[in-house]
Amino acid sequence: MNNSTLNTAKNKNVRKLLQSASSCLLGATAVTGAQAQINDEGWQTDIAVLAYSETDRVSAFEPAIAVKKTFDDESVVGFKLVFDALTGASANGATPSDTPQTFTRPSGKGSYTAANNETPLDDTFRDTRINFTAMYETPLADRMDKVIWGANVSSEHDFISLGGSGTFMRDINQRNTTLSAGFSFEVDTIKPVGGSPIALNEMQVAGPSTRGGDESRTMVEMLLGVTQIIDRNTLMQFNYGLAVSNGYHTDPYKIVSVVDDNGGLIPANGLNGTYLYESRPDARTKHSVFSKVKRFVGGDVADISYRYMWDDWGVASSTVDMHYRFNMSRGWYLEPHVRYYSQQAADFYNTSITTTQADAIVAAGDNLTADYRLGEMAATTLGLKLGFLTPGGNKSSVRIEYYNQTSTASNVIGSQSSQDLVPDVDAVIMQFNYSF
Amino acid sequence: MKIVVLTMLLGSALISGCSSLGVKPWERDILARDDMALENASMDSAFDDHIYFSKEASSGGKGFGGGGCGCN
């Protein structure tokens, strides 16, 4: 065996290692016994850089690095570090109007203005995030079972998250079926800029106002999975997930417009409109079912998945995700990607409300949001990825994707019908990967 | 609770039904390919999960849905 053959063989092993461990890094993705057990002495490194850019809104730059090592006893250790830099403007929830609107910044120390007929965007959106993940996978006595442990720390200037997970996996039916059961927990601390606003209070003109302190939230999740080899060319996965969270779920930077019966602004509190800070329930229970089919088709690979998610906020969503990998010569491939997502609105979503509705909601202490992410929405992603081997034989790829969100307003009042209340959001995603 | 019971029943049915499916150890050549791994682009998936978690009201499904992110 010459050097180049040895290198190729090593690169192949290294690539398989990377798949296995980085899958685990990301959570409980079931891996079937069909995948080869690989031993390797070295550390495998995977780097990636992502650029995300919305038209006129948020931009993000995210470099990431993952390393892992598989030991002779088939145990695997992996670490991943992600850095996130976000800048730009984010919709604050208020509706556009035919007259300019002024809003107080979250800090309470200044204001920003939305021109007439323009979606109000908070241009102070700026954040950096560091996320560190560690995983340890260990086979149990008969090597038909294994356990994957994970730990996660994430920090932003107004948010800290600590989490852990454990997933048990068992191969049965001559390793044709893999069962998995995983649990995770997460503890989040939210430290809103300027303090947490009092839910359903009216926004005041810039200056001192009554605010709360830090907030917290906990989440416990369970994930049950079955992965089945169907035949020599086909794999199938089925998961059920349950997530229960308690604590502060409100977005402290989102508000809701209160307008008169004709859809006009109501000047108040030194501002030329009336805006309530949003309020979300202090608990959420989410369920999801997920199924994936992977099939080898004459040298190419089709990957199709479907997820249905529903919760006790009234949100229900469907997601279809399809990849088709055209394998070409010398390790090159081309992979188109299509994703379609649709969701129905949370029960407490209103694009805006009248004073009568506001009075009733405030009196009852009900929940209220105008965050379009909790409204009725459809989203489409179209992408293309090109994979190739570097002259040194290492795996590399680039991808570009286009993402579009189209939302539907609810509770449209009077003259608001002439406004584009929830305009489309368009984003371009570009990513580069390199493994060595 | 009904959903959990229903899922367990469905899961049991799947498992018993699955016992007749599968391949022999020497028929795993294609399934062992890199591109046939259930998750063969984990960096892409992690980035995507984070984007969609930040922009939509849903998360999780194929893995845990917690995001370690203040964006939603």
Describe the structure.
- The complex is a heterodimer of chains A (436) and B (72).
- Chain A has helices spanning 3-25, 355-364; strands at residues 43-54, 59-70, 76-87, 90-91, 101-104, 111-114, 121-122, 126-139, 145-156, 159-172, 177-190, 196-197, 211-212, 215-231, 234-247, 255-259, 274-277, 283-297, 300-311, 316-327, 333-344, 353-354, 376-389, 395-408, 425-435.
- By secondary structure, chain A is mainly beta.
- Chain A has one domain (12-435): Porin (Beta Barrel).
- Chain A has a 16-stranded antiparallel barrel with strand order 1-2-3-8-9-10-11-14-15-18-19-20-21-23-24-25.
- In chain A, strand 5 and strand 6 form a beta hairpin.
- Chain A starts with a helix and ends with a strand.
- Helices cover 43% and strands 0% of the residues of chain B.
- Chain B is flat and about 45 Å long.
- With 72 residues, chain B is an all-alpha fold.
- Classes of the chains: A mainly beta (436), B mainly alpha (72).
- At the A-B interface, helix 1, strand 1, strand 2, strand 8 and strand 9 of A face helix 1 and helix 2 of B.
Radius of gyration of chain B: 17 Å
Category by helix and strand content of chain B: mainly alpha
Outline the biggest β-sheet of chain A.
Answer: 16 strands, antiparallel, barrel
- Which of globular, elongated, flat, extended, rod-shaped describes the shape of chain A? elongated
CATH class annotation of chain A: Mainly Beta
Total domains of chain A: 1
- Poorly predicted runs of chain B are none
What is the topology, as strand order, of the major beta sheet of chain A?
1-2-3-8-9-10-11-14-15-18-19-20-21-23-24-25
- Summarize the helix and strand pattern of chain B as letters: HH
Q: What radius of gyration of chain A results from the CA coordinates? A: 25 Å
The fraction of residues in strands of chain B falls at under 5%
- State the assembly state of the protein chains: heterodimer
The greatest inter-chain interface is formed by:
A-B, 107 and 55 residues
* CATH architecture identity of chain A: Beta Barrel
